Amino acid sequence: MNTRVTMRDLAREVGMSPMTVSRALRDDKTVSEATRTRIRQVASQLGYVYDTTAQAFRTQKSGFVAITLPSINNANFAQTFRALSDGLAGTGNQLLLGSTNYQVGKEEEHVRQLFSRNPEALVLTGGYHTDNTRQLVAARGLPVIEMWDLPAAPLGHAVGFSNAHAMTAVVRHLAETGRRKLAFVGASDGADMRGAARRQGVLETARTLGLPEVALLDAGPAPVSMRHGAGVVAQLGADVAQYDALVCVSDPVAFGCLSACQRLGIRVPEDLAITGFGCFEVSEVANPRITTVNVNAHKIGEQVVAVLRDILEQPEELEPRLIDVGSELVPGETS
After folding, report:
1. SS3 of 251, please?
2. What is the pTM of this model?
3. How far apart are CA 159 and CA 324, in angstroms?
4. Which end of the chain, C or N, has fewer beta carbons within 10 A?
5. 183-194 pLDDT, tens per residue?
6. pLDDT-based confidence at 56, cuts 50/70/90?
């Protein structure tokens, strides 16, 4: 029968007091680096894992940062999460992740659950939340960062870009290349709020430029993917060529549309232009390369980390920060 190794066992093995061992495992700089290294090596050999529960109770700090993401499969959100994880390495803090599947109701459930772990800060994706979530956050009073969006009334700090403004460059580019009759391919109403903001940006810019009314092509419930984009074009068949351009909510959707057009013998961009969003890897490897928008996913994570470090290191309350990372049109070969 296996017996759990205790801190006293570890202290006895290295010939030091439990207090010294505890300080070493907490990376306390009052213990020399050589001693900390030796204690950690012996701890690893014995299979000892430092239990942070007592420390959290004593200091009232959990060492956790809670974060919600719409999807763990989306490559852009994965880039942001990686930047967050790498940026917090060495701070003694870990990320607690909740995946909402683009549902604000699910976000509310996760926030309730994540709060039970007493996080040091909360990072939410987007600026759209239920009233209950807003009330929970306000009542809790911990630092909040909203990312991937620039909400008009932030809950605290915000790091992101304007989804609507990002589409202005896309529509202007299409208009400058002679495209007038546009169709927006995106998810059904009510789920992907960032996608809805992109759609609104397309509609408003088209009106400003005097273009005909933009057609709205429903690709299905969020999250929409390559399959959904291909399905939209397959359903229209040759009639898809009635449009000058398909403005897609994301690169995967654009790739699906492009593949379906190629199967139908519709030439891109000669017969029909296609644009994406997000600067996913698929936009670069597609043939032809897809015109897209770079939203600086990794930079969003880096900027969130910069705010988090200040939150975690400075005892005084920070003034709310609004950080616009911007976006850039990346012309490809499909427009």
Report:
1. helix
2. 0.79
3. 6
4. N
5. 999 998 776 889
6. very low
